[in-house]
Write a structure and sequence with these properties.
Elements lengths: L10 E4 L9 E6 L6 H5 L9 E6 L3 E4 L2 E3 L3 E3 L5 E3 L1 H22 L6 E6 L1 H12 L6 E5 L21 E7 L7 H11 L5 E7 L7 H14 L2
Parallel strand pairs: 2-3, 2-8, 8-9, 9-10, 10-11
Antiparallel strand pairs: 1-3, 4-5, 6-7
Length: 221
Amino acid sequence: MNQKMFQPLSFLKRDAAPGTAQPWLLVLMHGVGSNEQDLFGLAASVPSQFHVVSLRAPHAVGPGAYAWFQFGVTPQGQRVINEAQEADSRAQVARTVSGLSLQLGVPPERVVLGGFSQGGIMALSLLLTQPQHMHAAMVMHSRLLAEVLPFQAPPAQLQGKQLWVSAGTRDLVLPPAHAQAVRALAQQWPLTLAYAEFPGAHEITPHELAQAMAWLQQLTV
């Protein structure tokens, strides 16, 4: 790859604890209308053996507000996405993660992609289409994009991967039915699924965060 042509996405970073022999990398992606500062606030809760990187989505939708792709809702309630933006963002995330993995000396088998809402959509999409970049995905209050299914990697490439899916029982933005649909499909894939629903709206509650961090910790054992 021509390095002059590749500009990684903007990000904030917290290093793993000094002296960590085999550090992991957690890459976080925010929801629509937010930025890299948002999920970086979770870094203090992430196990110390992880480098934590919080990415900024490439498409500006307002001052300090970004999206991985823009979308609309039809009168029938169907979500319609900007497929070109989604594909571009997915490619940029993949290149950025690959570059960070190389720079930090963290192999893909110790890389986790995570996100909330649209950021979780991106994490799940990357797991399904380019699983070679990661060991696991952490998907919170999100949904599966039907638009990426034609690009899904062969199921055998998901062998040994891990997936966290969580939802809020009172989430009106992305109701738990979306997470349940992901669970139903994931049960057909050769990966290890952790699924949980938590009392709450479109938010990461303290209990959900604690459970997700415990899941991250067990990945490293």
